[in-house]
């Protein structure tokens, strides 16, 4: 199996592919590995599912993520920025 | 579930066009509604202090108001605001002579990957099959489980993750503002995804099976 990616390598590439286009060599290596590796195929599917879930959280406005500006900070900032051009 | 007011602001934006390039105070409040949380997450991830992060958001919006006339509309509104925040962060760290990049590295070391792979790089955990995961998206409990897993990430890394995966900030923009290399970012994201996957596997899919 010399020259083949390990599962660890493959898992990193599968993640990297979600952030940037992989090089030809990386894509090829990952594809070859996935042909023979059931666990990594599952892992790739699960990462894609995670991506789908977080994107859904964004479009549906589901609050899976904190922190955000507190109401107090928000109104303080709102006042500060709208006060700037009041005479 | 909280509804994000970003969505509401985006759909029914009441931003009125500025008259003759005169800074319109409405714009800053609209920016606050639309991008306030993203700016805050960026600032908080860098400075690690809530009050200072809030101040930076305010300074950014005030500077944006002044620079408003010069905004050509080329970059997206969010990218433009993040660019202004980036300058504010440079000033901030120049004054305080601290840096945050090392702290990301320290946090990354906290993501314990021991045990996921053996010394040869083979899986050492059971990567179980998730049956019909899409159905989970319709269940309120799933979102609670996911939120709980995100909360278990080191806080500043969780911010990085949120900016990338939920806010959809491109990795180049993220790296530039966070002052980290792309390679570093990819490693951090990869580890966080693995940890989240393992967390959900236990807390959600394990239970559902």
List the helices and strands and how they pair.
The complex is a heterodimer of chains A (87) and B (209).
Chain A: H1 7-16, H2 24-36, H3 38-59, H4 71-82
Helix pairs in contact in A: 1-2, 1-3
Chain B: H1 5-11, H2 25-47, H3 50-67, H4 77-96, H5 101-110, H6 140-151, H7 155-165, H8 171-178, H9 182-208
Question: If you had to describe this structure to a student in words, what would you say it looks like?
Answer:
The complex is a heterodimer of chains A (87) and B (209). In chain A, 66% of the residues lie in helices and 0% in strands. Chain A is an all-alpha fold and 87 residues long. The radius of gyration of chain A is 22 Å and the shape is elongated. The N and C termini of chain A lie far apart (75 Å). The mean pLDDT of chain A is 88. With 209 residues, chain B is mostly helical. Chain B is built from 9 helices and no strands. Chain B has helices spanning 5-11, 25-47, 50-67, 77-96, 101-110, 140-151, 155-165, 171-178, 182-208. In chain B, helix 6 packs across helix 9. The two termini of chain B are 25 Å apart. Classes of the chains: A mainly alpha (87), B mainly alpha (209). At the A-B interface, helix 1, helix 3 and helix 4 of A face helix 2, helix 3, helix 6, helix 7 and helix 9 of B.
In short:
The complex is a heterodimer of chains A (87) and B (209). Chain A is mostly helical. Chain A contains 4 helices and no strands.
Overall mean pLDDT of chain A: 88
Largest interface: A-B, 49 and 65 residues
User: What assembly state would you assign to the polypeptide chains in this entry?
Assistant: heterodimer
State Rg of chain A.
22 Å
State the helix count of chain A. Answer: 4
Please identify which CATH superfamily of the largest domain in chain B we are dealing with.
Winged helix-like DNA-binding domain superfamily/Winged helix DNA-binding domain
CA-based shape of chain B: globular
Number of domains of chain B: 2
Number of strands of chain B: 0
Q: How many strands, which pairing sense, and closed or not: the largest β-sheet of chain B?
A: none
- Percent of residues in helices of chain B: 55-70%
Average per-residue pLDDT of chain B, rounded, comes to 82
Low-pLDDT stretches of chain A: none
- How does the major sheet of chain A shape up? none
Poorly predicted ranges of chain B (pLDDT <50, ≥5 residues)?
A: 1-23
Order of SSEs of chain B, N→C?
Answer: HHHHHHHHH
Helix segment tally of chain B: 9
Q: State the CATH class of the largest domain in chain B.
A: Mainly Alpha
Order of helices and strands of chain A: HHHH
| Global structural class of chain A | mainly alpha
């Amino acid at each position: 199996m010399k020259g083949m990616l390990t599962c660890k390598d493959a898992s990193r590439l599968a993640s990297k592919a979600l952030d940037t286009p992989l090089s030809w060599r990386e894509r090829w290596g990952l594809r070859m590995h996935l042909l023979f590796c059931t666990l990594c195929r599952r892992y790739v599917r699960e990462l894609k599912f995670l991506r789908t879930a977080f994107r859904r959280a964004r479009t549906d406005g589901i609050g899976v993520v904190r922190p955000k500006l507190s109401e107090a900070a928000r109104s303080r900032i709102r006042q500060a920025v709208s006060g700037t051009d009041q005479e | 579930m909280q509804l994000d007011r970003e969505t509401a602001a985006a759909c029914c934006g009441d931003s009125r066009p500025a008259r003759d390039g005169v800074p319109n105070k409405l714009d800053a409040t609209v920016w606050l509604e639309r991008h306030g949380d993203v700016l805050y997450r960026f600032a908080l991830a860098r400075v690690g202090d809530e009050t200072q992060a809030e101040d930076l958001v305010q300074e950014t919006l005030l500077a944006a108001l002044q620079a408003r006339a010069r905004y050509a509309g080329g970059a997206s509104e969010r990218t433009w605001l993040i660019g202004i925040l980036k300058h504010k962060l440079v000033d901030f760290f120049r004054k305080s002579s601290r840096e945050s990049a090392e702290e990301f590295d320290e946090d990354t070391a906290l993501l314990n990957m021991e045990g996921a792979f053996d010394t040869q790089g083979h899986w050492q955990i059971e990567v179980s099959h998730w049956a019909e995961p899409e159905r989970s998206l319709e269940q309120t409990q799933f979102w609670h489980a996911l939120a709980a897993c995100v909360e278990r990430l080191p806080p500043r890394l969780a911010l990085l993750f949120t900016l990338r995966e939920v806010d959809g900030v491109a990795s180049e923009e993220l790296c530039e503002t966070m002052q980290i290399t792309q390679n570093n970012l990819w490693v951090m994201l990869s580890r966080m995804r693995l940890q989240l996957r393992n967390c959900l596997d236990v807390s959600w899919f394990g239970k559902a099976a």
